[in-house]
User: Which sequence fits this backbone?
């Protein structure tokens, strides 16, 4: 008998998302302990502590992919607000028309993570597609480490384009900031 590798994808809005936080944190801790991230316990705790705050953001949602009843990946994101610090820390000045936010302008893909043994099966693309399904925002954005090559390739194939680099705070890694229109793009 062969086990199915078809994922069951479930989307949770802000109201019901708290029930996913333990699973999301577990997957995050597993994935981001690996290269090139090499995050540790303090990073994992900080991520877990950020979830209830993020859940209060407009359009917040979490998507979980499960295979044979076991969670193999997640994605989460929310709308950027006019007072966002998302674009702060740009290594080169970014155009004001790119960084100015207003309600409904930009949905930020905060995380997409798939457990190692479940990668290269299309789950990240499915998570992304479900995360952005039905959104009303004009565009999407995400930050990705330049050395996270598989993720970078996926985002590029989904229509994201690099607009600059951002170091969100002093001891943070440098990230490529990427955006794409919400409509008329793959995935």
Assistant:
């Amino acid at each position: 008998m062969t086990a199915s590798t078809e994922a069951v994808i479930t989307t949770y809005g802000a109201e019901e998302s708290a029930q996913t936080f333990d699973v999301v944190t577990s997957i995050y801790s597993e994935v981001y302990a690996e290269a090139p991230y090499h995050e540790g316990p303090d990073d994992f705790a900080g991520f877990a502590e950020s979830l209830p705050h993020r859940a209060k953001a407009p359009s917040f949602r979490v998507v979980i992919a499960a295979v044979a009843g076991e969670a193999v990946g997640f994605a989460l994101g929310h709308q950027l607000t006019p007072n966002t610090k998302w674009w702060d820390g740009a290594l080169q000045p970014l155009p004001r028309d790119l960084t100015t936010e207003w309600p409904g302008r930009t949905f930020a893909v905060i995380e997409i993570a798939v457990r190692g043994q479940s990668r290269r099966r299309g789950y990240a693309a499915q998570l992304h597609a479900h995360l952005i399904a039905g959104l009303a925002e004009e565009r999407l954005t995400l930050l990705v480490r330049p050395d996270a090559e598989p993720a970078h390739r996926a985002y590029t194939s989904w229509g994201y384009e690099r607009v600059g680099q951002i170091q969100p705070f002093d001891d943070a890694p440098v990230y490529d900031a990427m955006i794409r229109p919400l409509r008329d793009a793959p995935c």
Remarks:
- The mean pLDDT is 92.
- The chain is about 25% helix and 25% strand.
- Residues 43 and 183 are 34 Å apart (CA to CA).
- Strands lie at 8-13, 61-67, 70-79, 106-114, 139-144, 161-166, 175-181.
